[in-house]
Design brief:
Helix content: under 10%
Largest sheet: 3 strands, mixed
Shape: globular
Number of domains: 1
Oligomer: single chain
Strand order of the largest sheet: 1-8-9
Strand content: 25-35%
Length: 97
């Protein structure tokens, strides 16, 4: 089955190095495995912003196996949203199985 990499539609984590104007410019992000905190593992703080400006990030891997969109550690959602939840940059699209 051919899969399309889900895009990060928006990211409200303004202090992330990959975030410019609520758009993530990493090539791809990884979502962490803690089922109660599906954190964006790609996040890191920086006063300068990087990444590839012409690219909108996709979800390269999802280690949160408890998510209903996780199929063999790949995200099957059509797209995701990332934002702060309890002081962590989380995947806001996460839905527990």
């Amino acid at each position: 089955m051919a899969m399309k990499m889900p895009k990060v539609m928006d990211c409200s984590v303004a202090d992330c190095a990959y975030n410019t104007n609520k758009a993530c410019h990493a090539m791809a992000i990884t979502i962490g495995e803690d089922p109660d905190e599906p954190v964006c593992d790609t996040f890191f703080e920086s006063s300068t912003h990087g990444g590839v400006k012409e690219v909108t990030a996709g979800v390269g891997a999802c280690k949160s196996y408890e998510c209903s969109y996780n199929e063999d550690y790949e995200c099957t959602a059509s797209n995701i949203h990332v934002g702060m939840k309890e002081d962590q940059p989380d995947c806001l699209t996460f839905e527990r199985r």
